Every structure is written in structure tokens, then in C-alpha cells.
């Protein structure tokens, strides 16, 4: 399968004049077309920093990230926007945008200087609406719909941006179990139907194990990318939290807490 | 664009009322001139009384044109600031440009007692324009410098507000030490005036404002991306800091120039974008920009018409009227604030 994003010998962190604050090093990733990949790690381990680095918001300290065969730092902003789209956790600022208009904003990297939509743009927007089953909400204001629906709208916006790589920052955080499952199912369906590569960070390991094709695990020592089955048999999840009272139950596919 | 028909209708209505308000504005004043005569002298056929034509060409038309560009400029600046700072109460004054102008004018008028020679030179009406231009320009440069140095957009907002309080405090101290005549002169300037501009001044005002507006038009697309917040805007390929710089530059040129020639006119910049957003129920700047432009001109013409109450020779200060009309609107908007409507 074709590689969408590759990271070689990557070090991430915040370059400081006095000392380099390296958060993680020797990261090697290979994210392929049609894969749904979960990023797992304890709070404060550097998941956000890794996502920020992979989306080009902050430069790597060492190593190269290649997106679609081109060095990430050499993409110009518009090219990057045509190759990478994001879904963030932060709240949207108040506005009167409708669901349709919000999704259509995803077409900005392709539209003219005024941002007017061509037939092709409209086609892509209705395709995104259809894939996320949001057609009936198209004319609603984005603040009139539920959190779960809004999350799908934001995913539709990323789909309309028509990029081979989509990154989601903790998309399941504010949702209940039912909506978490349906959201991950949707992501899985999208990777299968559109052949996109989707990377998302999450704390729901049990769901990630069942629904992702691969998982990137960040621990204090290392960053490992592998299939859920291999990660379980290599006992990687035992090292996820630096705490003896939390152990991974391989049969259950989740954690148990020692009293 | 699903509401295109509704938009077209409101746009046509706005356009018609703008033309009507323009003619009514010129026709009304201490001497009422029939609309037909106004129309005739505007298209160059000449009015039946030469006095009417003189009044129209030398007083009413310049004032109406000033009102139009002031209304357009301040309203568009307000719209730009509200989207850039993602703050519904932002307006052209948040960058501190009018405070800068006020401070300079206060120094010239109120400080005249301390350095008499400077005072007499600048006390002429032309000197006041010069002083407030200089004041706006100084703050403009400071704001642009701050905008380049500070990565956080909200920090720019705070810097602007801080500068406003700073300038206000200095003006307060200066007025404490000045005499009644100087205070009155400063108060008159601070109340704003759309009249008394020469044709030369009006062409400078229009030229600079149109330049600022032209710069602002190039930001319509990135402004729409900014509706999703800074990070999404960046992910859509928008060069955020460059766009922010351009928006601040456009606003500074427009507000700086308007404040220099007409004094600090308040509330138009905050109120008009909100009225337009309520009217059109959209956030698309492709619609909002042109709607704000028309509505700004129309509302400023209404305010100006009210100041010269028909048949009376008494002229109210323009800033009093804009605030008296604008403040209740902003309060009313706060009361009917619903999720998302306020943006």
C-alpha cells in the first residue's frame, strides 16, 4: 500500500536557547492509504506535540517528515492545505455559519480570491454531506445541532478539503459511548470508501483496539507504531502508564485497576 | 448560497433607501430645498434659486458625501475588527487610533496655554486636522509594530484598549489644567463634525478610505476562514499573520483618516455590523461586506439628517446622535443575544 506520511528518525519538542526540550526522539512512522490509525498515550506524554509536528504547526527538532513524498516544511501553505486537513477539539468562535457554509469553507484551498464555489466545489461539499449522512442538517446553523452532529460536520469539512491525510485531535472526548462508537465507525468507513489515511488521538484504548487498523503508542521510553494484535502480544500497553496499580488485561482488551 | 433571493431583495431595498436618504439629507436643513431642485442641481441642470444651488454645492453635498464615506469606512472597519478579534464588541476604536488622535488634539488645544506659540499655529481648523492625523499615524505605526511582534491576536486587542485608557487619562489630566475656553474647543472637536470640509479635504478622505476598502476586499476570503478560528484558518492555507497585518493596515488607514477629518465618531463601527448581521442572518463576508457598506452609509446619512433638524438653524453634534442611536442598539442586541447570533 502507498505511504501517505512517513517520519524518519524524528525528534519532537520545543527548541530552547539554553537547552533543547526534546519530548520524544527516534520516532519512525509510516502511515498508509486507507488506514485508520489511533494515537495513544498518557496525558502530558507529548501526543499534542507529535500531532502539531506532523501537521506542520511546529518544526521537528531533528528528522524529516514526508507528506505525499514531499518534505513537510517545503510545502507552501496552500499546497499543505490540499494535502492535510485537521479536526480540532477547540470550540468554534460564535458565528452564523450554516452546516453547509461551514463544510464549504473546506474548499478554500481550491477556490478563487473571493472564495466563490464552482460546480466542482459544490459536488465535493455534497459528497462530504452524503458520506457523513448530514444532508438533512445542511441548512441548520452549526450551533443548533448536537455535539455529536457537530463533530461529524467538522469531519465533513475535512472531507470537503479533499486531502489524502486527515488528523483528528481527540475527536471522541465529549461524546458518550454510543456516539464514540458511531464516530469511529464513520472514520473506519471513510478510510475504506475514500482510501484516505486518518490519524486520531484518543484515550479510549478499548475502542481503538477494536476499530483501528494500527495504533501509535507513546510511552516515556519510545514511540511504537504497530497493529493492535502485535502491540498486545508484545505487551506494549503494560508500559503505557508508569503506575503498577494499572495493568493491561489482554483478554479483556482494556485496563484493570488493582485495589 | 441558499438565501440568494432574500439577499437580493434586501440589497435592492438598501440601495434604494441609500439614494433616497442621500437626496433627503441634502434637501433638509435650516433651509428646506425641494427634492426636485436638489435632483436638478445634482445632475447639473441648476436649481431655480441660485442661493439653493450655492448651499447644495458648497455645504450640503460635501457634508452628505462625508457622511457616506464616514459611515462606510467606520462600519467596514468595525466588521473587520469583530471578525479578526472574534469579539462582538470590537470596533474601529479598539486599535486605539481615535484615542491617539484625541490625545494629539488635546495636547494641541489644551496644552496651548503652556506653549502659546505652538498653540496659535495648531488652533486653526487645519492645524487640528494635522494634529489628529499625526496622532492616528503615530498609533497606527505602534499598532503595526505590535501586530508584527505579538503572536497572540487577543494581546493586540488588549494593547489597543490599554492605549485608549492611557490617552484618556492624559486628556483628563490636561483638561484639569486648562481654562473653560480651551475645554469647550476640545469638547467641540470630540463631538465630531461632518461639515466644514473643503472639496480638497473630501477628496483626500475619499481617496484614503477607498484605498483602505480596496485592501479590505482582498481579505474577504480569509475573513470567512477566520470564522472557524485561527488554527482552522491556518489549516486552510491562510497566511494568518500576513492577513492579520493587512486587516489592521486597512482599518488603520480608514479610521485614522476619518478621525483626523471628522473627529472621533463612536458607535457606528460597532452597531452597524450587528444590525447587518441581524438583517441578513449570515456570517459570509461575501454578503456582509457589501451589506455593511450600504447600511453604514445609509445609517450615517440618517444620523446626519437628524442633527440638522428640518426648519431649525440649530445643529446637534454628530457624535451625540450616533451615540444616542447606537448605544440603545448595542444594549438591545445584548438583551436579545442568542447563541451564535452575536458574532
TrEMBL record, chain A:
Check the record and name the SMART domains matching this protein. Answer: AAA
Q: Which InterPro entries match?
A: AAA+_ATPase, ABC_transporter-like_ATP-bd, P-loop_NTPase, Siderophore_ABC-ATPase
> What domain of life?
Bacteria
The entry's keywords = ATP-binding, Cell membrane, Ion transport, Iron, Iron transport, Membrane, Nucleotide-binding, Transport
- Please name the GO terms of the biological process aspect recorded for this protein, alphabetically: iron ion transport
Q: Which SUPFAM superfamilies match?
A: P-loop containing nucleoside triphosphate hydrolases
Task: Give an example GO cellular component term for this record.
Answer: plasma membrane
Q: Where is the ABC transporter domain?
A: 5-245
Q: Where in the cell is it found?
A: Cell membrane
Q: How is it placed in the membrane, per its record? A: Peripheral membrane protein
GO molecular function annotations of the record:
ATP binding; ATP hydrolysis activity
**Family matches, as PANTHER family:** IRON(3+)-HYDROXAMATE IMPORT ATP-BINDING PROTEIN FHUC (PTHR42771:SF2)
This protein's name: ABC transporter ATP-binding protein
Amino acid at each position: 500500500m502507498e505511504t501517505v506520511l512517513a517520519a524518519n528518525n524524528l525528534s519532537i519538542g520545543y527548541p530552547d536557547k539554553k537547552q533543547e526540550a526534546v519530548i520524544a526522539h527516534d520516532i519512525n512512522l509510516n502511515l498508509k492509504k486507507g488506514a485508520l490509525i489511533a494515537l495513544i498515550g498518557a496525558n502530558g506524554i507529548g501526543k499534542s506535540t507529535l500531532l502539531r509536528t506532523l501537521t506542520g504547526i511546529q518544526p521537528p527538532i531533528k528528522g524529516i517528515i514526508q507528506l505525499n513524498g514531499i518534505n513537510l516544511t517545503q510545502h507552501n501553505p496552500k499546497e499543505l492545505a490540499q494535502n492535510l486537513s485537521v479536526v480540532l477539539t477547540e470550540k468554534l468562535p460564535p458565528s452564523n455559519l450554516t452546516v453547509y457554509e461551514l463544510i464549504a469553507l473546506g474548499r478554500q484551498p481550491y477556490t478563487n480570491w473571493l472564495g466563490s464555489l464552482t460546480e466542482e466545489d459544490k459536488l465535493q461539499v455534497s459528497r462530504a454531506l452524503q458520506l457523513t449522512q448530514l444532508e438533512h442538517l445542511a441548512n441548520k446553523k452549526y450551533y443548533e445541532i448536537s455535539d455529536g452532529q457537530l463533530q461529524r460536520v467538522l469531519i465533513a469539512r475535512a472531507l470537503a478539503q479533499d486531502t489524502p491525510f486527515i488528523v483528528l485531535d481527540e475527536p471522541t472526548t465529549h461524546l458518550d459511548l454510543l456516539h464514540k462508537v458511531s464516530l469511529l465507525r464513520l472514520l473506519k468507513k471513510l478510510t475504506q470508501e475514500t482510501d484516505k489515511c486518518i490519524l486520531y488521538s484518543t484515550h479510549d484504548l478499548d475502542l481503538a483496539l477494536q476499530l483501528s487498523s494500527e495504533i501509535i503508542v507513546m510511552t516515556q521510553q519510545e514511540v511504537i507504531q504497530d497493529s493492535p494484535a502485535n502491540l498486545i502480544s508484545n505487551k506494549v500497553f503494560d508500559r503505557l502508564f508508569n503506575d503498577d496499580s494499572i495493568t493491561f488485561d489482554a483478554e479483556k482488551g482494556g485496563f484493570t485497576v488493582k485495589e | 448560497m441558499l438565501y440568494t433571493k432574500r439577499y437580493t431583495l434586501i440589497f435592492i431595498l438598501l440601495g434604494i433607501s441609500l439614494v433616497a436618504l442621500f437626496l433627503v439629507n441634502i434637501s433638509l436643513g435650516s433651509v428646506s430645498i425641494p427634492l426636485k431642485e436638489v435632483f436638478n442641481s445634482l445632475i447639473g441642470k441648476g436649481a431655480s434659486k441660485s442661493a439653493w444651488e450655492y448651499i447644495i454645492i458648497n455645504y450640503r453635498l460635501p457634508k452628505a458625501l462625508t457622511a457616506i464615506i464616514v459611515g462606510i469606512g467606520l462600519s467596514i472597519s468595525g466588521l473587520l475588527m469583530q471578525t479578526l478579534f472574534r469579539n462582538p464588541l470590537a470596533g474601529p476604536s479598539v486599535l486605539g487610533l481615535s484615542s491617539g488622535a484625541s490625545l494629539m488634539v488635546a495636547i494641541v488645544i489644551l496644552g496651548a496655554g503652556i506653549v502659546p506659540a505652538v498653540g496659535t499655529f495648531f488652533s486653526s481648523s487645519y492645524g487640528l486636522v494635522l494634529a489628529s492625523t499625526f496622532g492616528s499615524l503615530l498609533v497606527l505605526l505602534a499598532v503595526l509594530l505590535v501586530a508584527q511582534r505579538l503572536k497572540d491576536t487577543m494581546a493586540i486587542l488588549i494593547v489597543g484598549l490599554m492605549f485608549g485608557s492611557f490617552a484618556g487619562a492624559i486628556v483628563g489630566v490636561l483638561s484639569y489644567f486648562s481654562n473653560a475656553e480651551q475645554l469647550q474647543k476640545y469638547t467641540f472637536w470630540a463631538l465630531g463634525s461632518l461639515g466644514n470640509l473643503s472639496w480638497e479635504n473630501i477628496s483626500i478622505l475619499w481617496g484614503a478610505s477607498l484605498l483602505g476598502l480596496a485592501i479590505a476586499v482582498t481579505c474577504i476570503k480569509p475573513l470567512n476562514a477566520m470564522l472557524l478560528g485561527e488554527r482552522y484558518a491556518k489549516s486552510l492555507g491562510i497566511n494568518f499573520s500576513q492577513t492579520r497585518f493587512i486587516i489592521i493596515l486597512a482599518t488603520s488607514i480608514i479610521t485614522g483618516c476619518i478621525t483626523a477629518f471628522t473627529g472621533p465618531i463612536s458607535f457606528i463601527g460597532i452597531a452597524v455590523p450587528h444590525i447587518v448581521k441581524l438583517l441578513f442572518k449570515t456570517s459570509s463576508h461575501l454578503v456582509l461586506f457589501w451589506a455593511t457598506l450600504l447600511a453604514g452609509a445609509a445609517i450615517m446619512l440618517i444620523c446626519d439628517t437628524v442633527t440638522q433638524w428640518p426648519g431649525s438653524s440649530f445643529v446637534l453634534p454628530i457624535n451625540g446622535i450616533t451615540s444616542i442611536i447606537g448605544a440603545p442598539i448595542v444594549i438591545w442586541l445584548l438583551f436579545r443575544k442568542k447563541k451564535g447570533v452575536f458574532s
